[in-house]
Amino acid sequence: MLEKIRAPQDIKSFSMTELELLSEEIREAILNRVSQIGGHVGPNLGVVELVMALHYVFDSPVDKIVFDVSHQCYTHKILTGRKEGFLDEAVFSSVSGYTAPQESPHDHFVVGHTSTSLSLATGLAKARDLKKENHNVIAVIGDGSLGGGEALEGLNFAGEMNSNLIIVVNDNELSIAPNHGGLYQNLKELRESNGTCSNNFFKAMGLEYVYIEEGNDLASLINIFNDVKNSQKPIVVHVHTDKGHGYSFAESEKEKWHYNMPFDIKTGESMFKFDDENYNQITIDYLSNKIKADERVVVVNAGTPGAIGFTPQIRDEFKERFIDVGIMEEHAVAMSSALAKEGCKPIFWVLSSFVQRTYDQLSHDLALNKNPAVILVSWGGIGSNDATHLGIFDMSMMSNIPNLLCLAPASKEEYLKVLDWAVDQTDGPVVIRVPNKVVSDVKLSENTVFSKPHFNIIQKGSGVALIGLGSSYWTAKEVAGLLAEKSIKATLINPLCYSQVDEKTLLSLEKDHEIVVTIEDGIISGGLGQKIASFLGSTDLKVLNYGAKKEFTDRADVKKLFETYHLTPEKIVEDISLMLN
Amino acid sequence: MLEKIRAPQDIKSFSMTELELLSEEIREAILNRVSQIGGHVGPNLGVVELVMALHYVFDSPVDKIVFDVSHQCYTHKILTGRKEGFLDEAVFSSVSGYTAPQESPHDHFVVGHTSTSLSLATGLAKARDLKKENHNVIAVIGDGSLGGGEALEGLNFAGEMNSNLIIVVNDNELSIAPNHGGLYQNLKELRESNGTCSNNFFKAMGLEYVYIEEGNDLASLINIFNDVKNSQKPIVVHVHTDKGHGYSFAESEKEKWHYNMPFDIKTGESMFKFDDENYNQITIDYLSNKIKADERVVVVNAGTPGAIGFTPQIRDEFKERFIDVGIMEEHAVAMSSALAKEGCKPIFWVLSSFVQRTYDQLSHDLALNKNPAVILVSWGGIGSNDATHLGIFDMSMMSNIPNLLCLAPASKEEYLKVLDWAVDQTDGPVVIRVPNKVVSDVKLSENTVFSKPHFNIIQKGSGVALIGLGSSYWTAKEVAGLLAEKSIKATLINPLCYSQVDEKTLLSLEKDHEIVVTIEDGIISGGLGQKIASFLGSTDLKVLNYGAKKEFTDRADVKKLFETYHLTPEKIVEDISLMLN
Description:
The structure is a homodimer. By secondary structure, chain A is α/β, with parallel strands linked by helices. Chain A folds into three domains: about 1-250, Rossmann fold; about 280-445, Thiamin diphosphate (ThDP)-binding fold, Pyr/PP domains (Rossmann fold); about 455-580, Rossmann fold (3-Layer(aba) Sandwich), CATH 3.40.50. Chain A has helices spanning about 15-35, 40-45, 50-55, 75-80, 85, 115-130, 145, 150-160, 180-190, 200-205, 220-230, 250, 280-295, 310-320, 330-340, 350-355, 360-365, 395-400, 410-425, 475-485, 505-510, 530-535, 560-565, 570-580; strands spanning about 65, 135-140, 165-170, 210, 235-240, 295-300, 320-325, 345-350, 375-380, 405, 430-435, 455-460, 465-470, 490-495, 515-525, 540-550. Chain A has a six-stranded parallel β-sheet with strand order 7-6-8-9-11-10, sandwiched between helices. The longest helix of chain A has 22 residues, at about 15-35. At the A-B interface, helix 6, helix 8, helix 9, helix 10 and helix 15 of A face helix 6, helix 8, helix 9, helix 10 and helix 15 of B.
């Protein structure tokens, strides 16, 4: 069947039997791709029928479908001219794992963060109304995404609209991990009463509402979408789907099969081995001991427990000392601020790409109030991420908020010392950037001053000073090695702090240095290097800033990126040599 | 009665008659202060009885009351030892208009942005539970604040809690302006059914619920708070209050009397005259014409129409081309992105202090998608604002987000040219910082390149180059004047763009300049000056960056602040002279 599909219209003439056959082929295609290059298994297998039914009933791209997070868009991509990205290994990379307008007119937004679809869809609907056009706008949002503030704002706005908007709530009873919050009790009640219980969150928001229990049954889905098509009021279609449907491993272990690295389809075994030692495990080991030793320590996370190694087993061990608030970063930060205010020791553990979802709470609720919460940022740095999940903005963003002491340790020992200090101190909020690569270097942890900027001189030299922040310290060290081969003994500095410069140490360089080189694993724009360049602007010292360009890169070739950014030791040495001549 | 009040316990022995009398005296005290120095009139007059009843029933500060936005905390301040700040003109300034822990242990957070109280209160409650303590936590949140994403996240979290949390929804049927969204239809239904209608947003969220119609009746309020005191479940107390209660002008014109400059108590007449010409009016005049000429133009605002001059009359004129989404900045940006994607021309008009509430949407929903929406930022710059409402962070924050073209025009003519260009262009999102002071200078608008950084050289000189961004251009011009008196003909530059440097123009300075001075009306940290210092770091040019320090100042003496920051023309000339010698 798949061979016949060039565009979504092609399925409109299919019989039910042909559609059923097609759904099986789509599942195979999805598994073909994710088993080889990884991807979102459960979310995509769960909505094969739902997405097919949408394309069967509606006329994309005139009717516009907006996927929330869009990690469940594989069937949509297969039906809209991009099936090769699932069938042919050679062109897998031509198709991203998220909606992408540059790939197809059937995709309307580049999306990867949660909770955005309702606001985006209301905008499409408002534009349609202003332009006096007449098509359907459909938002597809998972139950997990629904708890995020932006989604709830969008729902509130939709509740007052008086025109077509179809909100498909894809309820698979799970976020990445189990959901949290009162809203989810209501979804449960709605599922259990077949949508008839008296408390109805959506109706209370002013929306029309229908429920469908058979969320993986094509005929039922087609019927209901035909019913709501061209609705002149916003309407919620609450669909109960089965995450991982049609693939037994994913059906039975839903959390584990949300996102997977390459695996063997037959056995379900992962083909990917994690390094023996990683910062998730190092951190969890530390925290396990800490919560036993100190009853005020509490770990907070916003819907990504798996990404930080908090498996169901470890969550059981932490009990009420691990609070997963669901995908609600804003709430997580504000709540952490209040916990710290009352003498508890909250550690909000978040991924770099998502910490930007809570800027105002970091500034207004936390930093302004100087409450000593710890923000632990993982997955930061230049990598081959999707454009929606870059880890290069967190340091620049947070380093410009007052009262946030931001630290980027470089070694395992330094990290653990900084973390332990941060949890126990009571001066104010501390942000810690978790390093990427586990490197052991006891010397780096000898800096005992963490409470204020203290740039640690690891090697004293002259002429050239190399300041390498966090993971970039190791690049700076390599540069020092290469310079030594040229008989230049550079000064090597581990700054640790990136929210403020250590004025005394910087000024001490004036005497016998010409060039100060800064290296950081994030955008240069707004980062530590620019703070140093600014502070030294009135001196005779030359400053060279290295880091990422302020740009959205998409699944970049990291090696090439480092070359382009001149972030390799060799390139940096070349630049320095040019300046010295 | 007021004379007898030293602490909230003092009212617990009062009779009903004495309490009534006290409420009148409190209203007088509030009016005494706001009529002389301005403040939030309606919100405070509306909750006199509510706050008195809270303090009568609960035991602050053991029981903890968290005010949302906290602009309604005047009665609380009067009852908790700070009445002089309302009675005695000489010490008005010793008491801020928001809760402030540094003033009193009865205040738990510095708060000024909306929608934070629920998350903060759940944090206090969680801390209490972890510490096995046993007191009440009360959040007081207005209906307007309830629509914000952070509040909805907090409510969702509360719905799953199993311990004491009392959520007082102070429903005066108004945000600053009329509310928007489906939620508000439900609040209306609840009010009209005395809390008994079948659709109940709060119950659907898993919360217990009681309604009280007589929100300005002390006895009723005391009864209901006694009922819910020590509740072992989160419970919503939905109170219907009358905004502006007890002051006829404020009762009848509620939107106008939300916040007021000094006024005559007897006549209600404002004692404050606005300048003849201001940027609100200039912008509205422009937009009035633009919406007539182009049916795709639509103005979006998030709950602050009055602050940008959109009076009810002007809103009527704009009809569906003005969308006030309520206090939902995240939704506003995402919706604007989708409107722009579909060929509409949205202009999201927001205040500097609130644009930080939507960082992720600016980056992920808008900039990543390169949709040509316009973000118009008013009230930016160094001023005597409360610490919660500073206008110094917006430029730094936005200038480090890729794909956002950020422009800060300096004159009226330049502003109008930039605005008109931005609305019509289709390349991507454009941020415009609305200037503070209306200055006319046709010359500045001669820069016809707005689409990329183009630093405009207004006066060509040598030795010293002065780059003054936006409002700071006029400071740079004054500096040029003072330098001319010392026979130094400085180069004077209007950069306009603050998201990127104009490399060519900067490099052209190398030939015959020694010092580059940058001046901006916001924090130096992460701003344009540091981008320039970084870019010129490898040249022989010295760079001096001027702007605000990265800090939260509270109602600062602006003159002193400018002195401290060396932001006066005289100080800058002093610094330059020192460097030239």
